[in-house]
Every structure is written in structure tokens, then in C-alpha cells.
Amino acid sequence: QVQLVESGGGLVQAGGSLRLSCAASGSIFSINVMGWYRQAPGKQRELVATSTSQGSSNYADSVKGRFTISRDNAKNTVYLQMNSLKPEDTAVYYCNIRWIGTRGYWGQGTQVTVSS
Q1: For 76-91, what is each residue's pLDDT tens digit?
Q2: What is the mean pLDDT of the segment spanning 4-27?
Q3: Which residues make Cβ contacts (< 8 Å) with residue 66, sequence separation at least 6?
Q4: How far is CA 58 from CA 49, 67, 93, in A?
Q5: What pLDDT was estimated at residue 97?
Q6: Three-class SS string for the chain?
């Protein structure tokens, strides 16, 4: 069983910053992809950023240059540094981990609210 525990969400003014953390525990394959997704009210869940255990990263166009994903493989933890936040970044942010042969696992989500 794999568990993901997220932290770091909250309320921030536009232009501010937040840092999300997600720690994975359980039986985790060392070669994996960890990432962040978000879902705003009335919208589908969308990719924010992903990071592979081999060191490559991928970002949604809407967050490039503002968000940075990083990870600590020894701790099975992924981070999302969010700068220059905009009201349209308001959403529930979900952590995900996946590897070959799995559908992936999700965290419970953490709310990020950006006020204008």
C-alpha cells in the first residue's frame, strides 16, 4: 500500500508564494514519476508539474517560470515551489506517484487559494 501526505496549502495574496510538500510511504518502486495536479471548481483535474526519479521535469505552460518542482528521492518526497501566484492558480492541488505497471496513487489534496 502506498500513501501520500500533502502539506503546505493555504491562502495567499496574488503575487505571493507557497511551497507544497508531498511525502510518499509504503512499497515504492525506485524508478518513478512524482507530480502535482490541480483541480479548480467546475474544471477537470490538470497537470501542473512532474518530476522523474532520473531527474527530468515537465511543467504546464501556465506555470512555467513561476513554479518549480523538486524532489528528494531518499525521502520519497516531492515539493512544489509556487511563486508569483495568480487568482487563477486557486485549486485543490493533488500529489501523484506512479511507475510502470501501476495506475498511480493520489494524495488527499491540499487547498490553495489566491486572493486578488
Answers
A1: 999 999 999 999 999 9
A2: 97
A3: 82, 83, 84, 85
A4: 5, 11, 16
A5: 97
A6: CEEEEEECCEEEECCCCEEEEEEEEECCCCCCEEEEEEECCCCCCEEEEEEECCCCEEECCCCCCCEEEEEEHHHCEEEEEECCCCHHHCEEEEEEEECCCCCCEECCCEEEEEEC
